[in-house]
Amino acid sequence: QKEVEQNSGPLSVPEGAIASLNCTYSDRGSQSFFWYRQYSGKSPELIMSIYSNGDKEDGRFTAQLNKASQYVSLLIRDSQPSDSATYLCAVRYGRRYSTLTFGKGTMLLVSP
Amino acid sequence: GAGVSQSPSNKVTEKGKDVELRCDPISGHTALYWYRQSLGQGLEFLIYFQGNSAPDKSGLPSDRFSAERTGGSVSTLTIQRTQQEDSAVYLCASSGPGQGAYNEQFFGPGTRLTVL
Question: For chain B, how are helix, strand and coil distributed in percent, rounded to 5?
Fold first, then answer.
């Protein structure tokens, strides 16, 4: 059973702080990793993708991947109330199989 | 460009009725996926189409669920004899072109299905 685990939260941070969201996965054969943001009542929106060990930065977002430890994280710098949402971690296993396995998401609450 | 579109946005039906949900993927995307998300739950994979290959139906929860994709574009998810536990948001995503581990999936707005 391929699993993706996330702390359900909520993770509460004050405006301007760094929010750190973590995700672990069970299959060492995982190829690619994605972070989606989902506002209440809306569909998931792709924020970041990462494929290689290390950090990948895009604006206020940084994705970090450590394949040896089987975890991927998302850092949000200068958090804003508009970042309040559920963040979904998704993992793709293997090159041929394009389906994603999703974690249940971490709810982030950014207080003004 | 246009994103993934789904219709209807909301569907209320009575237990035992059949429903059809439609997905129109991003132009040029060869892969199309159906997921469902029940209240407070994660996304559950249902079915995956890639080009002209046989679909991956491994996520369909029962034989009441089926899907087809016509002309490599629009897809229809059909649920026969709906049950109350089928109530969920049904999400469609597409990716491509081609098939690869790094293809990013983009979601449509979803169809909220309520079975009374």
Answer: 5, 45, 50
Virtual torsion, Cα B81, B54, B100, B95, nearest 10 deg: -40
Contact assignment for A98 to B104 by CB distance below 8 Å:
no
CA atoms B94, A24, B102, B50: torsion sign: negative
Residue pairs spanning A and B at CB distance below 8 A: 62
CA-CA distance, A85 to A107, in Å (whole number)? 6
* Interface of chain A toward chain B, CB-CB under 8 angstroms: 31-32, 34, 36, 42-46, 49, 51, 88, 90, 92, 94-105
pLDDT of residue B107: 97
Decide if B103 touches A, using CB distance below 8 A.
Answer: yes
* Subunit contact A104:B109, Cβ cutoff 8 A: no
Which of the 8 DSSP states describes residue A76? E
Contact B80, B86 (CB under 8 A): no
**pLDDT tens track for B17-57:** 999 999 999 998 889 999 999 987 889 999 999 888 889 99
Nearest-angstrom CA–CA distance, B72 and B27: 10
B89: Cβ contacts below 8 Å, ≥ 6 apart? A43, B36, B37, B38, B110, B111, B112, B113
Q: From the CA atom positions of chain B, what is the Rg in Å?
A: 14
Three-state DSSP state, B25: coil
From A5's Cα to the closest Cα of chain B, the distance in A is 11
Residues of chain A neighbouring B56 (CB-CB closer than 8 A):
97, 99
